[in-house]
Design goal:
The protein is an all-alpha fold and 506 residues long. It is 67% helix and 0% strand.
């Protein structure tokens, strides 16, 4: 394969050589005119061939040199033919333009033009085949074509008669016929080998899919196994038909047959993808958020979620994905296309955090339009998929109720501000952007006597509880103990204690 800078240098060198030929023939000033249409056609055809081979990574320096040299020979012949119709004879490449020149003889000029045209047709027909041959074979063909051209001058020098010109044409045509026969034989072999390789590639893909399904056979339903086995059997039958049918060498027929093979391989591939999808259901969803508090905080109000700024209204700004609509009423819409649209729109849901009010019903209609054919005939996978997509939709629906918006505002917030925020959030905006837009639109929250914080945790009650407990522990309980001790002491100093003391003294 030739890298792009080398390819461009080859193209530029070829164009410079063409200009050199035209300049040598005195035709450079006619460049771009209708007079040089034949030359221009040859140049365009050669450039198209080179670009096609470069795109297919088949262009090498030897093959590029072969194409360029062959084209330059044809350009030279075309330039001489153009000059022959004006004032300059076509003897430039065979010496002086005199009566002794080969192209000064009408019979030899006609013979050489006929042979040159046949060589041009040969290289146009088998150029791609020759470029793909090994270097030894290419060199042999190049030498054979060059010898046919060189023999013209040699034969003319030996015998310039008209009869010898006829013999030269006959010999050259026979040599070209032998080359064409060998090229056709090689093309038949190459076509058969290429067809066999294409069939082997498709069969290898079938074996790979069948092997992957075999590994999970115990987890598949009988219906899924039946679908895969039937598709595999049909692929084998169609591949055998391609190899045995000679019409498969026709590119149009072969492509149609390979399209049928691809459709059966898609059935096998979809069955495997559906199983893998069913195994992932529920695993990629985040855990449901409860109404509890954040870790480390004990909020008085409901949990405040961190808001994200709303994306563009087309649900494509900044993410590179756009909600995909699909005609569910068209008969041409296949179950696989509906499933592909849903999978694409699911990416939109996850990327955007939700859908707009117009897109949510469309997404739900797509989910409800799913059929078991999209899952290889597995009705269980269909139900699981629909439940998954519906759960995803309900868990990402944006917006809050008026009460929830009110709870996130301080007391005294004006109702028009709350209602306007509710309207924006129903359209898909988050709390923060909806609040700011409502203020910009003239719906101020009013004199609130404080600062609104959207997603900061409220002051915790835990500090007050601890303070109350501390006061109870360090003040109330000691006071009760002191009071009880004093009561006990006063009881010992009563009338009974005094009478007992007097009796002791007596």
């Amino acid at each position: 394969m030739m890298d792009q800078p080398s390819f461009e240098r080859e193209v530029n060198a070829y164009l410079v050589k063409v200009d050199g030929i035209l300049k040598g023939k005195g035709l450079l000033h006619d460049k771009g005119s209708a007079k040089l249409n034949k030359v221009q056609k040859e140049v365009d055809l050669t450039l198209d061939k080179m670009r096609a081979m470069q795109r297919e990574s088949k262009l090498t320096r030897p093959s590029a040199g072969q194409l360029v040299n062959s084209s330059l020979n044809r350009v030279t012949v075309a330039a001489n033919q153009i000059l022959d119709g004006t004032k300059v004879p076509l003897g430039a490449i065979f010496g002086n333009a005199s009566n002794d020149s080969m192209l000064g003889n009408k019979a030899w000029k006609k013979a050489f033009s006929q042979v040159s045209l046949q060589i041009s047709n040969f290289t146009n027909s088998y150029g791609t085949l020759i470029s793909n041959m090994d270097s030894v074979t290419r060199i042999k063909i190049d030498r054979a074509l060059a010898s046919i051209i060189d023999n013209a001058q040699k034969c003319f020098d030996n015998d310039p008669s008209d009869s010898n010109a006829t013999r030269y044409v006959t010999t050259s045509m026979q040599a070209l016929a032998n080359l064409e026969k060998a090229a056709q034989s090689q093309q038949t072999v190459s076509s058969a080998a290429m067809l066999k390789l294409v069939v082997q590639e498709k069969d290898q893909e079938r074996v790979r899919l069948l092997s992957e399904m075999k590994l999970i056979e115990k987890s598949l339903t009988p219906q899924q196994i039946s679908v895969v086995n039937d598709a595999s059997r049909r692929v084998m039958e169609k591949l055998n038909d391609i190899l045995s049918d000679k019409n498969s060498y026709d590119a149009a027929i072969r492509n149609k047959k390979l399209g049928l093979v691809k459709s059966d391989l898609d059935i096998m591939r979809k069955s495997l993808e559906n199983y893998q999808f069913s195994q992932k259901l529920g695993k990629s969803l985040p855990p449901p958020r409860s109404g509890g508090s954040r870790l480390g905080y004990l909020n008085k109000n409901k949990l405040s979620q961190p808001f994200r700024y709303a994306l563009a209204s087309n649900l494509g700004g900044g993410t590179g994905v756009v909600f995909q609509e699909i005609d569910l009423t068209s008969e041409e819409t296949t179950p696989y296309e509906i499933l592909a649209a849903i999978q694409h729109n699911t990416m939109v849901v996850k990327a955007q955090g939700g859908l707009t009010a117009d897109q949510r019903p469309a997404y739900l209609r797509q989910v409800n339009s799913l059929t078991k054919e999209a899952f290889g005939g597995d009705s269980v996978a269909l139900k699981e998929a629909q439940n998954h997509y519906r759960l995803l939709l309900t868990s990402t629906i944006g917006g809050m109720s008026i009460k929830e918006i009110t709870d996130k505002h301080p007391k005294g917030t004006k109702k028009p501000h709350i209602k306007q925020m509710h309207k924006y959030m129903k359209e898909g905006m988050d709390f923060g952007p909806a609040h700011e837009k409502a203020v910009k639109e003239g719906f101020a929250p009013g004199s609130l006597g404080g600062i609104i914080t959207y997603d900061q945790p409220e002051e915790s009650l835990i500090n007050g509880v601890r303070l109350f407990g501390s006061l109870f522990l360090y003040l109330v309980i000691p006071s009760i103990a002191i009071y009880g001790a004093s009561k006990y002491a006063n009881r010992n100093k009563g009338p009974a204690a005094a009478l007992a003391k007097l009796m002791e003294e007596e």
